[in-house]
Amino acid sequence: MRCVHQQLLLIAAMAGVVHAQGARLPDNITLYPDIEYAKAGDTSLKLDLYTDPTAGSAQPLIIWIHGGAWAAGDKNPPGPALPWLREGWALASVNYRLSQQAVWPAQMHDCKAAVRWLRAHATEHRLDPQRFVAWGSSAGGHLVAVLGLSGDVEELEGHLGNPRQSSRVQAVIDWFGPTDFAQMLGQPSAMDHAAADSPESRLLGAQVATVPDRVKSANPITYISDDDPPFLIMHGTKDMTVPFNQSELLHAALTAAKHQSTFVPVEGAGHGFGGPQVLTHVRDFLRQCFPAAK
């Protein structure tokens, strides 16, 4: 069995989403790096904000949440969301506490605190608080799915700042995120998700099979309700890190609850994908959700 370090290296190597590291920002965009959106004890929680300070109207916002098995990764580079700056969107890329720093639900407390900070500062940065989109891949896909489905769920809100603001988002893009850790077991995968040192067990602070209540708490399907936002779910059919069934489960649950969910299997792709055709699905989804946006 791989040791934890080897597992994390595998995930880092396979997290092949499109990004634009080193890409030149559009001339109208200003980057505000390392904004402290909350503080958890002695840990400063930060985000990078990319906006057009000259925008004539409030900009819709993509909130990018990175992957990395909840134990690695960083807000820079901001995944595949950077090109949307050229299409009238602002972008916030968020760091959160990793599993070696804190266990679940700390990560969700952080993500919700970031959304609340962005909403509290929307006027200052010309953001439209009614057009917040959460987008993430892998572990980030899991976090945006929970974020989107647990708006104002008290036990996941935490106490990290701007408590009077809503943590709701208006759309979710989930790229190959885990959903039900208990149903990862026995699926095709290069990892042993049942192991005590698996990313899922490390996130929960205990071996998956021994903490069913925590598994349920971390499962986005737990929180499906009548006022959930639309979802775009995309997953490689040959993913050997996060089993393909994880996205199938989420889409089926949303569809059964009569919520808007678009599921795009990316044929032949593994744990990560990109290219114009993939991003076309994102563009179509955003235009459907927000017809007034570019």
Topology:
Layout: H1 4-14, E1 30-40, E2 43-51, E3 59-65, E4 90-94, H2 106-120, E5 127-137, H3 139-149, H4 154-157, E6 171-175, H5 199-204, H6 212-218, E7 231-236, H7 245-256, E8 261-266, H8 276-289
Helix pairs in contact: 2-3
Q: How many separate domains?
A: 1
Portion of residues in helices? 25-40%
What's the arrangement of strands in the largest beta sheet?
1-2-4-3-5-6-7-8
Distance between the terminal alpha carbons, to the nearest Å? 48 Å
Fourth-level CATH superfamily: Alpha/Beta hydrolase fold, catalytic domain
- Which oligomeric form is depicted? single chain
Largest sheet: 8 strands, mixed
Question: Using DSSP, what is the number of strands?
Answer: 8
What is the average of the pLDDT values? Answer: 91
Structural class: alpha/beta
Strand content: 15-25%
Low-confidence stretches: 1-22
What's the helix count?
8
The arrangement of helices and strands along the chain is HEEEEHEHHEHHEHEH
Stated plainly, the CATH topology is called: Rossmann fold
- Rounded to the nearest angstrom, the radius of gyration is 18 Å
Q: Tell me, what's the shape? A: globular
Question: Briefly, what is this?
Answer:
This protein has helices spanning 4-14, 106-120, 139-149, 154-157, 199-204, 212-218, 245-256, 276-289, and strands at residues 30-40, 43-51, 59-65, 90-94, 127-137, 171-175, 231-236, 261-266. The chain is an alpha/beta fold.
Explain how this protein is built.
This protein has 294 residues and is an alpha/beta fold. It has a single domain, classed as 3-Layer(aba) Sandwich (Rossmann fold). The chain is built from eight helices and eight strands. The model is unreliable at 1-22 (pLDDT under 50).
